[in-house]
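thread: overnight batch results

M.L. [08:02]
morning all. the overnight job finished for the chain we discussed friday. pasting input first so we're all looking at the same thing
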Amino acid sequence: MNVIEINEMSREDAIQYFGFCCASDSWIYKMLAARPFKSMENMKEIGDRFWSESKEEDLLQAFMGHPKIGGHKIHSVRFKNTADAASKEQSSAMKADDQTKLDLREANEKYFKKFGFIFIVFATGKSGSEILKLLTDRLENTREQELRNAGEEQRRRRENAYGADGRGTPRRPKKRHRMLFSQQDSEISENNRSRSAKLRVGRFIN
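M.L. [08:03]
and the structure it wrote out:
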């Protein structure tokens, strides 16, 4: 897949493509509106800029698209794309011994209770024990630090998903999935309408 194909995708296919990279509604819609891109590198740069503009609610929504490392799979259709990609990234960690997997699950629960969102790490090539050490070390951070850390790890995961050099991009959506992503498009549009309504009310009150 190249930048020409991405630029010429239908709206439904583009939502799936960008949704594979990141589960944030705001980021997906900004990327849709930014087409056409000049090159894959140009798309990456624009994606990074939009991600840097993300509010906390956008970050948290993107994090929801990840399964917990060592935890259960996400079954929600809304986050199936990013969950599938993250599960593949975590394949090395899932080869860990049973005790390490148990320690990962317990540390994940501690992390979630402390920060209110799951532990995010770009897991490709990392063993279960390596991820466990990173998780344990990051438990000592503040919530603000972890939002920044998780945001950067999500950026690395996204960059890997669509390929910084134009390779390794997700496949073109299959026809049988398009109905699901039309539904997702409706959900995203509704979320954006609700957000806009709240902003208008806030301005009126102020």
